[in-house]
Amino acid sequence: MIDELVIYNGILYGFVILGVITFLALSFISAPYGRHVRKGWGPNLSSTLGWVIMEAPAALIFAIYYIFSENKTNIVLIIFLVLWQLHYMQRSFIFPFLLRGNKRMPLSIVLMGLIFNTINTYVQGRWIFTLAPIDMYDIKWFYDPRFIIGVSIFIAGYVINRHSDWILRNLRQAGEKGYKIPYGGLYRYVSCPNYFGEILIWIGWAIATWSVAGFVFAFWTFANLFPRAYSHHKWYKETFENYPEDRKVIFPYIF
Which end of the chain is flanked by fewer CB atoms within 10 Å, N or C? Predict the structure, then answer.
């Protein structure tokens, strides 16, 4: 039989290649959901349902890996579980029900998201709970600078992401429609601080886990969100004549 590590490493290499392709594709074609939704991508479904279907496997599968782990009392693994679920429980079962309006999402996008999250959760969860060297995440890792720095970056990114989403949700009063220019928080500096926060989340995860899997996920997040942030930035400037000229796309003071 083929050793699982051979398959596992093959998936990682495949993810890197696919991430590069995704970055190049999204640099020319905006993913068709949210403000960029358009015809030609097959049947649509409710955005709320689509987000739940896409994101729920990440929360559920990761929890299953922990349940069947032989080190359920390991404080480091518990913190990894809490961090992961902090993001994906919110993204799966809270965020979709906070969406306003009757937006639709192509089923093709939902299925691609579902496949990605299922495979990525396998890559992250199997490494942390099974494939990592047995002594890698022992109690000493709890005091390791990489763990402390990584968790700190994760939390900072999470706060930025949640606060930025909160600003977006509260732009319109009850009954209002259409888009507005967001202000406040890091919107003072960039068009998409929510994406900046999410990139920070998974950079923090990569550092805290110090794993190839984590760094591949951080790369994938950048490859997916950076082109979308640029599309948002361009859309804002084309839609609003008074859009702040000094705002960057996603990284404050840089780009």
Answer: N
